[in-house]
Design brief:
Largest sheet: 9 strands, mixed, barrel
Number of strands: 23
Distance between the termini: 12 Å
Number of helices: 11
Helix content: 25-40%
Structural class: alpha/beta
Strand content: 25-35%
Strand order of the largest sheet: 1-3-22-21-4-18-19-20-23
Amino acid sequence: MSNIVYAQNTISWWLTRGDQSALLQKQKQAIAFGNDPVNATIIKIDTNRKYQRIDGFGFALTGSSAFLINHMDASSRNALLNELFGTGVNDIGISTLRISIGSSDLSPAVYFYDDVPPGQEDMSLAHFDLGKDKETQLPLLQQILKLSPKLKIIASPWSAPIWMKDNQNAIGGTLKTACYKVYADYLVKYLQNMQQAGITIDAITPQNEPLNGNNNPSMVMTAQQEGTLIKTLSSAIKVAGLKTKIIAYDHNCDNLSYARTLMSDEYVRKAIAGTGFHLYAGEINAMGTLHNEFPEKNLYFTEQYTDAKGDFGGDLKWHMKNVVTGALRNWSRNVIEWNLANDPSFGPHTQGGCSTCKGALTINGSSVKRNVSYYIIAHVSKFVPQGSLRIFSDNKDNLNTAAFITSDGHTVSVVENDGNADVDFSFSMGGKTANATIPAGSVATYMW
């Protein structure tokens, strides 16, 4: 963001229209501050009312994403990574990633880090090995970290290794009672191996979507079971001398009882940094409800996908209203979209994995197409770096907003026009106003 040129006492702004006639396009005409608002719709911004600190914005770097980026020619790959993780004028400054521990359903195949023949176990984890990830994900992450050394990485398992599960299957089932300790050790070994490769995992979720046993791979966990694992894992992380945080739940906004059950256990509550959410069910204000009940704990938004059948304009509006401004206004420290890249057929994915998840990028060989999710995240990642503070801003009429103060003194506001008509509005801050117009169905980021 430091390389973005701006003028004092004026607002620079970038626009994406739902009809794609403008895509993160810097507008030539800056907006001047004055003393009198001329519009009935006034967005008040108050820098004295401060809320959560921001960890970052980004995507899930799935196995498929890594596979596709690694198969680009070196020049194209380097240019893409600079654009995604750099802070230059034409870069979007991604500052957080989510990765899977072993395979997710958006991996070319199902695998774990301790695969043994059917009927066998490896309670000593003698066969633990990062395997496929050493060839694909690790080299890519190492390259990314050179561009973005402060990148925050959240890691999530889709399932424990098959031999640890009661159904002996990659899909569904739950963790055997006898395997809580060995699974915690497995996860710690993962963290240690990643650290040895120069990759620090900022946070781990014990289970991706613990109430969804239909993915390939997947594993089901009740709140009580996850609480047991969190206690075991927290202890193992401490013994290993690691600082990795634990983020609980990592599933939809329709089930606060899961998070409340975890929070009601004092040991678990102290062991976790906070709770992660998706929005495939429920309402985003559930995050705010949980914050009000447990204000000392953080909240994280860890996954939402755009569908292959989706419409650019419709997805732009819905995600900016709910996933971006909605999650941020409900105390989320981050926003992560699912996922970074697919091929033109929405693969690779496992058998039974998501065949309609549309990546932020469509990669075909070395050519790259930027999809709606790219712009959804870029409208915040480019302008709101790690460490920024969310501040007060109004939602008015059809305008959904979030505002921030950055560490270098900028004020940033992202505004989504959810209506079908252009809206004339005025920013009001510190006794000054600025008059603006945002087109129907558009998103704009304003910085001064």
